[in-house]
Structure formats: C-alpha cells, structure tokens
Amino acid sequence: MHIRDIDFEDRLRINELKDSLKDSKIIGRDIIYFDTLSSTNTYAMKLSENGCKEGIIIISNSQSSGKGRFDRTWVSPPNKNLYMSIILKPYVSPEEAAILSLMTAVSCVKGLRKISTINTSIKWPNDIVVNDKKLGGILIETRSENKKISIAVIGIGINVNFRFCEMPEEIREIATSLKEETGLDYPRTEVVSVILKELDIWYNLFLKGNKEKIIDEWIRHSSTIEKHIRVKSGNFIYSGIAVGVDEHGRLLLKDNDSIIRISSGDVTVLR
Ligand code: BTN
Predict the structure, then answer these.
(1) Phi, psi at 195, each rounded to 5°
(2) Of 85, 99, 123, 218, whose CB is crowded by the most CB atoms within 10 A?
(3) Is the Cβ atom of 136 under 6 angstroms away from ligand 1?
C-alpha cells in the first residue's frame, strides 16, 4: 500500500473510511466519530444497550479515560493513534468470547501486515506486538442474555504515529508504534480501514463456526507459541513452554509433563 504524505494533524477522514468499507457485510455499517470521548468502549456499550444494529464503529481522535485490560489506563492522546470500538451482537455462548478476542488479534495483525513490512505478531491472548513491545491492545466487553452473548464491544487501540518522546515514561520501555518501528508516518484512516476489512472477513468466518481456522491463523501469527514464558494469572505465576491454545482460547502451558490451561493473564516471554 502506498503511504501518502499526511497533514500535520492526520485527521481521520470518515467519509473516505465509509467508502472504503462499502463492500463489508457487517463491519462499518455506520461509523460515529468524536473528537474526544472518555472511552470508545464505554460509549459503544451504552449505545448498544439502548438498542442498535451490530457492525457500528465508534472512533475517537482522543480518549480522556481510555481503558486497558485489568483496569489499566490506555494512553490516548489526540492526532496520533487509533482508538475505536466495534459493536457486535453474535448470540453465541459466553465461552466463545475468547475466540472473538483471538479473531480480533488476527484481524489487526493481518491488516497491519498489509500496510507495513514490520513483523507484527500476537502475544497471548491479544496484545499486538513488535519484538515483544506493545503496538496495540484489544479490550472486549460483553453482556449476556439467556446464556448468549447479546453484546460484544470490541475495543482496539493501535499506536500509529506516537513517538517515544511523547509517551509517558512508564510505557516508553514497553510500548512502540508504527512510526517508531519504521520511521514512516501512517495515515490513520488507512490503518483503520485495513483492520476493519480484515475484521469483516474474520467475523463472518466466526459466525459460520470456523473456530479452528481462527485458532490456526492465531497460532500462525503468534509470538507466544513454542516460547518459554511466564504467565501472571490473578495471584498465581506459572512458567513453562506455550504449546497451543484450546477451543476456548485458553493458553496451553507445558510444565514438566503436565499441561496447564490458562484463561487470562499477562505473558512475559523468557527466551
Ligand atoms: C490492553 O490493555 O491491551 C487493551 C487496550 C485497549 C484500548 C482500546 S482504545 C479503544 C477502546 N476504548 C478503550 O477505552 N479501550 C479500548
């Protein structure tokens, strides 16, 4: 893809984005843009609880209280990065939420690989990383009705043109951006577009029950599998070799002769 010169503020061009998604089956049916929001996930959840179709995108130029996993803050300054939430209504069992999360990570990595040559990969469950530094994160929040997921808000944050010198000190060592990895400026509109096009493909496969294909693709793009890792899960710390993920998206960790299944946690790659 040709990376164009971008204007100083790199405005998100919503009409162009809508146009690029006109062939989507579900994702991007409507796009709602804000200059600032507390959190696109919070807004998307409120909107969907009041009743709306699936496939709507909430995108904001900045967030005042961006949310990360485990109640962390997601640093969200204006004009630099992507902060968006996609409203889905999959009506599948709550155990499938983890597959939605793997599916989103696959879509982000496949999209990012289309616009950049850097080796973006997935750290379990859904961190988007380059050489173990975090380029993006995914936060999925769900509501259930009659034992089915009635709403899934898929929050995606990607560091696009964020410079190390602009990052708060506490994330400078662990985060990165497309700009820092390549030296190039990326028009955010194109970055959103490639990710959402992939998400449309993978969500349709998900709805058709193609779980195995999603897991296979996740493994293909993962930098966790076959590595010696440490996982902090609640008050427990496990270590061993990551050997796969199961049909519920749980990480399979081989420790001596036993396999431990981990459903949530923070991974550190040891070597
Ligand atoms: C993580 O901790 O890795 C997940 C980060 C998710 C951040 C995105 S930015 C858009 C959406 N809105 C939020 O408040 N969080 C997610």
Answers:
(1) -70, -45
(2) 85
(3) no
Q: How far is the CA of 154 from the centre of ligand 1 (A)?
A: 9
Task: Report the alpha-carbon distance of residue 190 to residue 184 in Å, rounded.
Answer: 14
pLDDT of residue 47: 97
Q: What is the pLDDT of residues 93-119, one digit of tens each?
A: 998 999 999 999 999 999 999 999 999
Ligand 1 centre and the CA of 93: distance in Å? Answer: 23
Pocket lining: 40 vs ligand 1, CB cutoff 6 Å: yes
Q: Which two tokens stand for residue 179?
A: 């700009």
Measured CA to CA, the distance from residue 242 to residue 232 in angstroms comes to: 14
Our measurement of the distance from residue 4's CA atom to the centroid of its chain's CA atoms, rounded to an integer in Å, reads 24
Q: Please tell me the distance between residue 254's alpha carbon and the centre of ligand 1 in angstroms.
A: 30
CA-nearest residue, atom 9 of ligand 1: 157
pTM: 0.95
Q: Which residues of the chain have pLDDT under 70?
A: 1-8, 271
* DSSP structural state of residue 67: B
Torsion angle defined by CA atoms of residues 222, 226, 227 and 230, in that order, rounded to the nearest 10 degrees: 90
Evaluate the omega torsion of the peptide bond into residue 125 and state whether it is cis, within 30 degrees of 0: yes
- Cα 118 to ligand 1 centroid, rounded to whole Å: 22
**Full DSSP string of 73-105:** B----TTTSEEEEEEE-----GGGHHHHHHHHH
